[in-house]
Amino acid sequence: VEEELRRERDGGPRLPLRPDHGHQLLDDQHRKSNPGYSLIGRLKGLAEIRGVELAMRQQLS
């Protein structure tokens, strides 16, 4: 995380986040999608990643 903060500060490349391969939740179970690429499951995964990122940033500052 400290390395990513340094990259942001220095204007360097950002590391990609991959919230894919989510679970099938709610309406996802009734939609046609490729395995692991459900809409709501991927949004949940992204929210979890953002929450972890925020918690770690707060701990480091």
How would you describe what is shown here?
This protein has one domain. 51% of the residues lie in helices and 0% in strands. It is built from 2 helices and no strands. It has helices spanning 2-10, 39-60. The chain is elongated.
> Could you list the spans in which at least 5 consecutive residues all have pLDDT below 50?
none
Instruction: Give the tally of β-strands.
Output: 0
**On the 0-100 scale, what is the average pLDDT?**
78
How does the major sheet shape up? none
Coarse morphology? elongated
Amount of beta strand: under 5%
User: Treating each run of at least 4 consecutive H or I residues as one helix, how many helices?
Assistant: 2
Helix content: 40-55%
Number of domains: 1
Rg (C-alpha, Å): 15 Å
**Can you write the helix and strand succession as a string?**
HH
C-alpha termini separation? 12 Å
**Structural class, from secondary structure content?**
mainly alpha
List keywords for this structure.
61 residues, mainly alpha, 2 helices, elongated
Task: Please sum up the structure shown.
By secondary structure, the protein is mainly α.
Topology:
Layout: H1 2-10, H2 39-60
